[in-house]
Amino acid sequence: MSIPEIALNNVSKTYNPGLFKKKVQAVQDLTLEVGRGEVYGLIGPNGAGKSTTIRVLLGLIRPDGGEILFRGEPLRHGEFQKEIGYLPENPYLYDYLTLEEILQFCGRVSGCAAEDRRRRIDELTGKLQLDEALRRPLRAFSKGMLQRAGICFALLHDPSIVILDEPMSGLDPLGRKLVFDIVLELKEQGKTIFFCSHILSDVERLCDRMGVLVKGRLARTFARQDFAASQAAELHLLLPAADDNLRAELETLPGRLAAVAEGLLLSIPPSRLTETAAVLARLGVEIRGTRAERVSLEELFIATVEGGVS
Amino acid sequence: MNRVWALAVITYKEGIRNRSIFGILAFALFVLGLNVAVAGFFMREIGKVTVDMNLSALTFSGLLLVFFVALHLMAKDIDKKTIQLVFSKPLSRGEYIVGKYLGILCFVVVSLLVLAVFSSATVLLVRGLYPNYFAGFSWPVFFTAGFFILVQLAVLSAILILFSTVTTSSFASLIFTVCAYLVGVTIEDVVFYVKSGFRTEQISEAVKQTLDVVSHILPNFAMWDFKLEAAHGLVIAPERLGLALGYAAVYIVVVLALACLCFQRREFN
Q: Under 8 Å CB-to-CB from A299, ≥6 apart: which residues?
């Protein structure tokens, strides 16, 4: 296996809020790897430790233990920063500066030549539809425009690794599509993308691999292929909710039974469909429909967070 | 250096476009206007009062600039988490401190220069109205005193940066910086009183020693105060100017080095 771009090995971080306050264990023994050109989505409920993971990675906070490797070597800040672009959740840029000034600053500190800066500014602001706002002060920007300005700031120096913390936050549907397309384009360019999001449909569509972070621990990692595999191997029948007796009867059927938002989901091998349908008819249980996937990412996420994924 | 300068430039621009400076400018203009209006009431002291009032207006406006605008140039980065974006770029914490300081310094210099132009115009006007009462007045001494107001603000800006690196709120930084200034402007008088024979009550050795240590740690702002000389048109010895400048330079370097050290340890949640 090739050397991962980013590897976190047993990283832990505990916050000490001060005297007489309980310590908060934000991240515990977190181990994860992000391969070159991979899109890795870190999902988890609020307070799970997603932003802490990013801050540890950026060197904004020091981990209590563990190691962080960048291309197989212990991470050295400065070198790492040249390779990354970072978008925080709700980026706040300087009120009285114009977008052009802040992007010029970004290019200068990243070591871009003047002509490259100009070209990238035109390119990015054009793509993100901010070209007409280039000379407006940032305090006049809407939340969505600030988010897009933050994306321009993150991508200006053409980084090989992009770290996005809730990139769709505060965006309207059109803005979301713009950002979605940008992330897809970055993916096509072979950039490594590490991102946190609450919008699971975006994570599902964009990510090659996903990790579910619960109370600072990586509870589960799965790849997009896992969904495809479950889709191909089984037939998923959507049944109405049932009482305990009926549920006990259903559990005797071949396959697996799982509770979903709409009722119950019975996953069976395709060869057992006729037999199962007959039993369901005898029990008076109607088949309400079929589903392409046994569980959606949302169900998997909820089940993982509640600690009961099957 | 390019990175430091890039940060200094945006810090300066962010400061100079802040609308609060219009309020501070209006206040300074009010005081200068008041000076013209009331100058006639001071009879033979017109020259001294004019110079003193002008330099005091410059000092007070400069303090407002540092406390209410410069403070936010540093503290807002931390409060609003802009610093996370800045540190996602290849900019070290030391470069950040130096860049911020240079930006704040440029902002203070330009603002004070604008105020100095108005102040000089006021002195020129009052001098034109009452030429007989400006016999001892000297422009070089007046500008020297004005320059050392700038030096005081430069030291104060460095102290503000140090406190911003160690406190978690901008309000705490403001309080600590104001306290440092107040203690700094009075420390010389206190030390003089303790060491002199004027006092009647006994002061313990421990208090004296503590005061001695504090007087070295805190900036002695009286070292950079030449209002009295400017008001009376007294010549300032070059050695005194050199000593004051050297003290300021050393103090700024030490304070910024400490700020860098504290900032290296700081975590940004």
A: A260, A261
A278 in Cβ contact with A239 (< 8 Å): no
Is B18 in Cβ contact with A150 (below 8 Å)? Answer: no
Model confidence at B62, pLDDT cuts 50, 70, 90, reads very high
**Per-residue pLDDT tens for A60-92?**
898 998 899 988 888 887 778 888 999 988 888
* Cα distance between the two ends of chain A: 29
> What pLDDT, on the 0 to 100 scale, is given for residue A310?
42
Closest CA of chain B from A302, distance in Å: 27
H helices of B130-200, where?
139-166, 170-195
- A120-158 residue pLDDT tens: 999 999 988 888 888 999 999 888 888 889 999 999 989
Contact A41/A210 with Cβ under 8 angstroms? yes
Measure CB to CB from residue A109 to each of B90, B267, B268 and give the nearest one.
Answer: B90
Cα of B241 vs its chain's centroid, Å: 17
Confidence check on the interface: ipTM exceeds 0.95, yes or no? no
Query: Å from A35 to nearest chain B CA?
Result: 20
Residue A226: both structure tokens together: 């896992």
Say how far apart CA B107 and CA B112 lie, in whole Å: 8
Q: Do B87 and A60 touch (CB under 8 A)?
A: yes
Interface contact flag, B90 A55, Cβ < 8 Å: no
Picking from A60, A96, A106, the nearest residue to B267 by CB comes out as A60
Model confidence, pTM: 0.83
Which residue of chain B is at minimal alpha-carbon distance from A91? B82
Strands A217-223 and A209-214: antiparallel
Task: Quick: pLDDT tens for B173-197.
Answer: 999 999 999 988 888 888 888 777 6
